[in-house]
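Full entry
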Amino acid sequence: MKKALYVFVLLAVGIQFYRPERSNPTQDESINIMSKVQMSEEVVGLLQRACMDCHSYSTKWPWYSHVAPVMWIVAKDVKEGRRHLNLSEWGNYTKGKQAKKLFQIAEVVSEGEMPLNIYVRMHPEAVLTEMERKRLSEWAEEQAEGIGDVPDEEGPHNEKNNPKP
């Protein structure tokens, strides 16, 4: 039994040395969503409170994100979140991709899919009320509609993906 405990402690200590990347790259403030898309202070607050931690380079890395195996999960979630939507890189998206992302924001927020349940358990301040969900969703839809129907080389309007008969 003692031997098993020693092995467990040794493994618990040993896994702490495998550290995934947890960084916040330098941001160019001129291309983030705050500088590119019109929004009220309320929407800024909602995005900062419920979205930016995983979907920007403004991630706050809490103490538990430095302890394995939780750090692996947090690092993976942030990496995936930034891959799907990076509000710090907004200006680098095509207009079509911006419109698509805004419609996706409206959908996942109104459906309650975002922020993720696992995230709000650890960050209760990120919980959005129904009214906040509605406000954020309406804002995203309005902005997407303002961009218009712009073809996106990665989207369904692309001639490669949707050839004319």
Notes: Residues 130-147 form the longest helix (18 residues). The chain is about 50% helix and 0% strand.
